[in-house]
Amino acid sequence: MAAPYLAKNQRRSRFLWIGDATQPVTEIEITPNLSSRYQIPRAADLPVVTPFRLKILHFNDLHGRIAHLAPEGNIPVFSRLVFRYHQQQRKYADNPQAGVLLLSAGDDMVGTPFDALVSEGNHPYDLYQALGVDAAALGNHDLDLGTHALAKMIQRSGAFPVLSANLMPPAQLKKCVYPAALLDVKGVRVGIIGLTTSAQMKGSDARNLTFVDPVRVVKNLLPVLRPYCHVLIVLSHLGYDLHSTSATVEGYGDRQLAAQLPRGAVDLIIGGHTHHILNETCLDQGNIVNGIPIVQAGTLGRFLGEVTITLRDQQQPATVTNAKLSVTADLPVDQAFEQIQITPIVASLHQKLNQPLGIVANHPDLETDAVLNDFASHESAFANFITAGMVAQARKKGYAVDFALTDAAVVRTGLPTDNLVYGDWFAVMPHADTLRLFQLTGEQLWALLQDNARRANRCGEPHLERGFVQFSGQIRYQIRLGENRAAARATEIFVQGIPLKEQLAQTFTFVTHSFIRQAACHWERQFQQQYPAIALFDLDQQPSKDTEILLREALISHIKIDGGVTKAGGVVRDGRLQIDDI
Fold first, then answer.
1. What is the spatial distance between Cα 74 and Cα 57, in angstroms, rounded to a whole number?
2. How do residues 225-271 score in pLDDT, each as one tens digit?
3. Which of 244, 246, 344 is nearest to 300 (CA)?
4. Looking at residue 342, what is its pLDDT?
5. In which element (H, E) is residue 489 found?
6. DSSP secondary structure letter of residue 342
7. What is d(CA 123, CA 104) in angstroms, rounded to the nearest whole number?
8. How many CA atoms lie within 13 A of 390 on its CB side?
9. Which of 335, 350, 365 is the last residue of a domain?
10. H/E segment holding residue 305
């Protein structure tokens, strides 16, 4: 079924497709009781002035970075994209043979300081709606804050069109997230199918989300959607390729998707997720798969992509005739948009980031060099502070936890050497990880510790993100590195002062964060290839429950109790972990 939606600040209608795209689609219906102007004739029955140039501006993985907060002051980002879009709109305003679209390929939120304002009602969808962005794919990080929060954001923005055809949306998203959209650009009908990766999901209800094979979904939609389109685009947040290393890609990347579709079934794939910089100066032959061009525009608004699709006549297929990237920093600023829309948000953010939190203890483990180089080399006082805070805050919220663990993925930098403000801690933890509870038997805990011993840094080996975890003070043990990773062992293990070997049948509850060990997936694959007989411990297979408590905010509460990041709060090495290189 298709329902009409009039794009804000645009002279065009937009139909949003309602229904289950995970099953074969045989027909469409128009929402009842609509006037005749909302009927949808087939593309072949529409008169189009040809040749027609469709300009598509696109960006992806903005992560809320509407401005760059540099030491020298605010540097506009989003307002430069706005300038280019408005410039193109003006250029083609009176030209019946050209039109402009602006699309986002997802991950519009989470990962920059602007996240601090989301709870106060400031989020990118509001800006997109004000500007007239035509649609956005749903990214995995857009779900980090949970489906309930996402639904509220979309509704608060005036139902900005968010697309994902391969997500089977839970009840709260069914009226907010659509499989596809159909846009009218001066008589040219443009179909857009949204796709979302199932990789790196860490929202409060991520385990309850169901994703379907994206190839199957697109093939389900093709028979019914293609006849109504002059141009058909896949707006994808799957990632560029299964072999990409910049982000985890599961099942299909855009290249694999294109290879599996009928040749010419879609005219363009606009991608995101893996932060690739594609087609910088022109369309690269290597980015055309099965006749389908693939584009992507980096991350954080550093580039704006531009694709030109030409319709020479209605008997010929639409053709991508140009693709390129513009460096955003080289674009002028739309001063009106900057002053009216962006400046108030940045002012609110500065106020939030400058809130004082207390002092910082003088300890080498809190320095950036230690965080980046030594987290998996020895016991870390910084990790001890984080795990102590997780235990204390989880118990304060009524959760009976026995211990906590963390890895390096949530600690991005060190701390200043004197006073601490909110922005300093946000720099440490910029992502929307939440506290998650797991249960393990004593025997499983023993296996986890043996697994962890194999992930510790070793002399003479480059440091990779292997998912080495640090524990709270309730666990004390030694690591014997041995001659190689397969020989590494955890020994002398005590839990709450009692040898673990005496508690193998006991069930323990521990608290960690929602992205635990996810960044280690590439190393894990390599290890399994090298040592196929050794099974790594998969935390994702263990019973767990998300608390919906934001890790960053929980630790800020812990910081405030003792007036900063202090010894009293846990900044200490107490010998809970000893690593012996023998």
1. 24
2. 999 999 999 999 999 999 888 888 999 999 999 999 999 899 999 99
3. 246
4. 93
5. strand 489-495
6. I
7. 14
8. 34
9. 350
10. strand 303-311
